[in-house]
């Protein structure tokens, strides 16, 4: 009998060890995919000036690529989560990684902005929309409920934080000493490794008949989200309410100068499509057909307020990580590596605070942590906007970046946990897809609105400074004003000086143009960053609607 007991104990221990080893391998495969996705969301911010130079484009062009990448993910994340249920989560994951790697390869070889947008924004975005929901769903499928599953999600979250933290630094190093293209090439290598390793993953078959895709709901949701963000993007060129230039498509003047801005039209169409989407989903539920989203997941305060808070959190994160690197490179002349090093305190703060989030949640109400975190993010952005100037050093950014990082680390995990826990087990795939859609939508809006405010402020300031200048000849001012309104761009002093030399104006006029550009550019960047912080307070307001954690006495 003792021998049988010892044998049984040894067998159990062996089984546990195998399970632990298998779980570790699963997390290795899924973690690598999560790492390159998180890395990609922050890496390219430090390479903006190099991409502008290499592809002969503008900051606005790179902004469109950045925004489109987040837009595609936001538009298709819900569809991607549903396709994971239809195709099988492992298959969806593998297809997503393959698409992502193909997009990264095309981007690494791209000769112009158009090819880059196709590879990076579209293919990588669609690949992420399949890959990311599958990662979270596979963790929930493979790991049993309880502590083991929580630890699995914690590992994936830590890997994502590490990828986001290393993005600016690693890409900054590659961009400075090699090329930004090498960064995408490294992602291709990782994607190939993941595809090879996933063949060894053993995924339990899902019981029941696979669901069907709600094609009408999928189209309405994707188009609605796309029109909203595309509308905001038009503000850089056309203004918010009144069109500052005509909208011409195919040689046809659709909207004259001074007419209603395309921003209003696009956003209105997007909102209308999303209303139709909600009505259609309700109709699908009433006739007992499977909707793309069960709208009942929005009925709890944890989901409805939490998703809006996530949107605001990602809005602040994406907005500040777009504006601050542009300021460092355009106003201060930092290269990609210096920009990455300057941003490193933010990344370190995120990782350190996030690693303690589980302990903090045990001691404090998650809602309090979320409120402190979101408020800290806005305060940190405001401090950075006030203190940064043309004489700033790396140390100038330290206080604001640390506060932003601490806020992100405090708010992220408790907020995601509140939202995910708001849905029952059968709706975890849906809430995960909606969660990531709101996250990416917030990122898209952060970059789009920050860029729109930047260009609007730049145009206003340039026009005013040109008109006030006592150095520029009065006869040249109308022409300069026309150039500003037609093609205002964020350019560095070096870029403008190089361009002016080809025109050959007197030195005094050249110096005045550089001064005007610097003053308008730096002021526009500060206003854009300040706007990100102020608008981000919406998330802080939403956090007060989150449910409190009930204490033992209250439950009793």
Give an overview in words:
With 556 residues, the protein is mostly helical. Among the domains are: 1-201, Up-down Bundle (Growth Hormone, Chain: A); 214-291; 458-527. Helices cover 77% and strands 1% of the residues. The protein has 21 helices and 2 strands. Strand 1 and strand 2 (252-255) form a beta hairpin. Helix 6 packs antiparallel against helix 7. The chain is globular. The two termini are 46 Å apart.
List the helices and strands and how they pair.
Blueprint: H1 2-43, H2 48-54, H3 59-87, H4 89-108, H5 113-142, H6 147-177, H7 180-197, H8 215-233, H9 235-238, E1 247-249, E2 252-255, H10 262-286, H11 301-330, H12 336-355, H13 357-363, H14 366-387, H15 398-420, H16 428-468, H17 477-487, H18 493-503, H19 507-535, H20 537-543, H21 552-555
Antiparallel strand pairs: 1-2
What is the alpha-carbon Rg in Å? 25 Å
Mean pLDDT across residues: 81
**Which strands sit side by side, in order, in the main sheet?**
1-2
| Structural category | mainly alpha
Structure described in brief:
With 556 residues, this protein is mainly alpha-helical.
Fill in the keyword field for this structure.
single chain, 556 residues, 77% helix, Growth Hormone, Chain: A
């Amino acid at each position: 009998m003792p021998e049988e007991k010892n044998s049984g104990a040894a067998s159990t221990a062996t089984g546990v060890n195998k399970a632990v080893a298998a779980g570790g391998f699963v997390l290795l495969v899924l973690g690598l995919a999560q790492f390159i996705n998180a890395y990609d969301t922050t890496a390219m911010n430090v390479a903006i000036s190099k991409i502008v130079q290499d592809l002969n484009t503008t900051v606005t062009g790179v902004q469109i690529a950045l925004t489109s990448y987040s837009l595609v993910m936001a538009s298709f994340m819900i569809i991607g989560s549903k396709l994971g249920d239809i195709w099988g989560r492992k298959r969806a994951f593998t297809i997503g990684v393959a698409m992502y790697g193909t997009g990264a390869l095309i981007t690494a070889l791209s000769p112009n902005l158009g090819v880059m947008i196709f590879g990076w924004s579209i293919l990588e975005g669609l690949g992420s929309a399949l890959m990311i929901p599958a990662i979270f769903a596979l963790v929930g499928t493979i790991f049993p409920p309880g502590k083991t599953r929580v630890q699995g999600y914690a590992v994936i979250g830590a890997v994502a934080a590490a990828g986001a933290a290393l993005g600016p630094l690693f890409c900054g190093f590659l961009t400075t000493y090699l090329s930004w293209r090498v960064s995408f090439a490294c992602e291709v290598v990782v994607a190939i490794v993941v595809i090879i390793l996933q063949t060894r993953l053993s995924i339990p078959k899902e019981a029941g008949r696979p669901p069907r895709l709600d094609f009408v709901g999928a189209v309405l949701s994707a188009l609605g989200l796309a029109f909203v963000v595309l509308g905001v993007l038009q503000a850089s060129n056309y203004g918010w309410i009144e069109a500052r230039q005509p909208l011409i498509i195919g040689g046809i003047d659709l909207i004259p100068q001074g007419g209603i801005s395309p921003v209003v039209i696009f956003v209105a169409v997007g909102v209308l499509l999303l209303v139709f989407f909600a009505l259609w989903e309700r109709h699908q539920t009433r006739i007992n057909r499977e909707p793309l989203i069960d709208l009942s997941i929005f009925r709890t305060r944890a989901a409805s307020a939490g998703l809006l808070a996530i949107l605001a959190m990602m809005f602040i994160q994406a907005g500040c990580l777009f504006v601050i690197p542009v300021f460092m490179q355009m106003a201060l002349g930092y290269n990609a590596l210096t920009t990455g090093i300057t941003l490193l305190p933010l990344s370190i703060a995120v990782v350190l605070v996030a690693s303690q989030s589980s302990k903090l949640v045990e001691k404090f109400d998650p809602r309090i942590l979320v409120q402190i975190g979101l408020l800290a993010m806005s305060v940190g952005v405001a401090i950075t906007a006030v203190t940064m100037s043309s004489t700033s050093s790396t140390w100038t950014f330290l206080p604001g970046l640390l506060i932003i990082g601490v806020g992100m680390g405090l708010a992220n995990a408790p907020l995601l946990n509140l939202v995910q826990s708001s849905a029952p087990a059968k709706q975890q795939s849906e809430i995960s897809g909606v969660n990531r859609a709101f996250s990416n939508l917030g990122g898209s809006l952060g970059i789009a609105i920050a860029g729109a405010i930047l260009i609007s402020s730049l145009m206003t300031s340039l026009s005013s400074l040109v008109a006030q200048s006592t150095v520029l000849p009065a006869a040249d001012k109308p022409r300069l004003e026309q150039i500003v309104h037609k093609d205002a761009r964020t350019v560095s002093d070096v870029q403008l000086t190089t361009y002016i030399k080809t025109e050959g104006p007197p030195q005094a006029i050249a110096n005045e143009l550089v001064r005007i550009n610097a003053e308008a550019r730096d002021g526009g960047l500060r206003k854009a960053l300040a706007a990100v912080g102020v608008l981000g307070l919406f998330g802080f307001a939403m956090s007060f609607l989150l449910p409190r954690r009930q204490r033992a006495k209250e439950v009793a």
